[in-house]
Amino acid sequence: MSPLFGFRLQPLPALIQAWEAGGFDPQVYLRSWYWLSFGWYWLTTPDGAVPTNHPAFNAAFGLPPDPEPHLDYQVARLWLDLDERVPRVLEPLPPALASVLASGRWAEWKAQVSAWQHARPDEQADWDLWSTATGWENARVLDMGYLAAPPVLRFWREGETVTVSWDTRNKRVDGHLCWAEAQGQQCLGVSAFQAEVEDFRARLNRAMGERLQEVASLGRLSAAELTSLWQQHQATLFPPPPATDPTDWAAVLEAIGGLEAGSGLSLLSP
């Protein structure tokens, strides 16, 4: 069975060649663990790999086909975003919120209330209330704002089940679909999800360890610079556990109720 968090690193010679072709000094990037992690990544789902580049996207801009059909960026970015969110993902949602999130009703309501908020005069819009009502979801969605048309990849727990959801529909750049359109969910046991996260860490640890050894073999970095790379490696993949306060669900539900009352748009209220 393929791992949930799939990735491949771009071969180092090709990476150095791309830096040089772009007019950049490879020496600068060879000192950075983050930049050395450039490659491709995706979630393995019943719909296949997500996100996958839309087959017509590059042609629409007169570009050659990509060497891989997956999202290309620093794999470290996926790891850092996931690792930051895992404590919140493992915190169970109240059943009512898990239900509206799974059904899609949450996304519809949130869009409607956001439009209502933005249509109000500035002095009437209550963005603190909005933040309290919606922040719990943001902590369970991968931050992919570095992309022009980010897919929505979300994780949440209800009881002893973690749900993984994806939505790449209607994500466009200059009117052109960026991703092959897919929407869906799959469920894993909590221990299975945790095992997938640890498997991702282990595979990235192994792949980047081999990459650092390859960088060392080039003979282009000093001993101090190589030591720094290994320190970055350790700090990124094995950080100390974060101190995370539990979510105040009573405050969240009260804020949602306040937005329901103000907007007249019902989510949890009868």
Integer average pLDDT: 95
Strand percentage: 15-25%
Tell me the major beta sheet: 4 strands, antiparallel
> What's the number of domains?
1
Number of strand elements:
9
Span of the ends, CA to CA: 43 Å
Whole-angstrom Rg: 21 Å
Task: Write up this protein.
The protein has 270 residues and is an alpha+beta fold. The chain has one domain. It is 49% helix and 17% strand. The chain is built from 11 helices and 9 strands. Strands 1, 2, 3 and 4 form a 4-stranded antiparallel β-sheet that branches. The longest helix has 29 residues. It starts with a strand and ends in a 7-residue tail after the last helix. The mean pLDDT is 95.
Brief account:
The chain is of the alpha+beta class and 270 residues long. The protein has one domain (5-263).
Q: Would you spell out the secondary-structure blueprint of this structure?
A:
Layout: E1 5-9, H1 12-21, H2 26-30, H3 33-36, E2 38-45, E3 48-50, H4 57-60, E4 71-74, H5 75-89, H6 95-103, H7 105-119, H8 127-138, E5 152-158, E6 161-167, E7 172-173, E8 176-177, E9 183-189, H9 190-218, H10 223-237, H11 249-263
Antiparallel strand pairs: 1-2, 2-3, 2-4, 5-6, 6-9, 7-8
